[in-house]
Amino acid sequence: MPEKPAARGTRIAHVGLAVRALDEILPFYRDVLGMPETPLDDADGARIAGLVAGESLVELLEPADESSPIGKFLAKRGPGIHHICFAVDDLDGTLARCRAAGIRLIDERPRIGAEGKRIAFLHPSATAGVLVELSEY
């Protein structure tokens, strides 16, 4: 039976930034700031460009259409920080603790995200107005 990996603790996995057009802002992060690109799958109605920032990522999120979650976010709030993602050792256990604490969940069950990892979102009404994504390592 394989050994369970050592616990790493909670860390920032990525920050998601809502942008109107990837081709307009990507050169700033990639060429000016020198952040290398990393391939990510598009997800949740967004085209996603991934950039490496130390041990974390920055996800640039461009809406595929106006009715997508990112499209609606941009229409209401404009470009900016959309969410922060924390990598956790035990996603199922963390979600159980959230439920026990009365934290409102957007995703009742984990699903696969842009990095191919299991993810779940917490509702901003329960996290001081911040959209929080949880991800497994």
UniProtKB/TrEMBL annotation:
GO terms for molecular function: metal ion binding; methylmalonyl-CoA epimerase activity. Transmembrane segments: none annotated. Coiled coil: none annotated. Keywords: Metal-binding. The keyword Metal-binding applies. One of its GO terms (biological process) is L-methylmalonyl-CoA metabolic process. Residues 11-137 form the VOC domain. InterPro entries: Glyas_Bleomycin-R_OHBP_Dase (IPR029068), MeMalonyl-CoA_epimerase (IPR017515), MMCE/EMCE_epimerase (IPR051785), VOC_core (IPR037523). Belongs to the methylmalonyl-CoA epimerase family. NCBIfam families: metmalonyl_epim. This is Methylmalonyl-CoA epimerase. It comes from Gemmatirosa kalamazoonensis.
